[in-house]
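so my prof wants the structure for this chain in the tokens format not the other one, which i didnt know existed until like an hour ago. anyway here's the sequence
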Amino acid sequence: MRVTVVYDSVYGNTEKVAKAIGAAIAGEVRVAKVGEVSASGLQDADLLVLGSPTLGGRPTEPMQGFLASLSEAQLKGKKAAAFDTRYSGRFVKVFGFAAEKMSESLTAKGATLVAPPQPFIVTGKKGPLKEGELERAASWAKEISK
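here's what i got, hopefully its the right format
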């Protein structure tokens, strides 16, 4: 299986999760920061995994731009999954989360989600990741790549 994991990261937490996901998947896996991969570079991927921190209820601006650059022709019938890192603060739920918005964008352009949007929790605005989240990311990666 050929998998491309595209992520953005502000404080390094999402990058750690993306790399844990990439390391857990058997096959040909490419893990790249958004901006290091173009939409046309996704053609050979059997599975596309997107990850972003949740900022203001959305993915980061670079990830939003990447999503906007993806066409229906590039995503139609492609398997996909999305994850985010999020802080479980008091008002965070009001605005929503990045993974849900990325998933909606992917399915609107014809991708088939292989799993519901997946959150990974940071213990503070800048992190670190909650204990056990990298192991959970690896387990999730194995599930979505079946």
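also thought this was worth mentioning. The beta strands are 2-7, 28-33, 47-53, 79-87, 112-113, 118-122.
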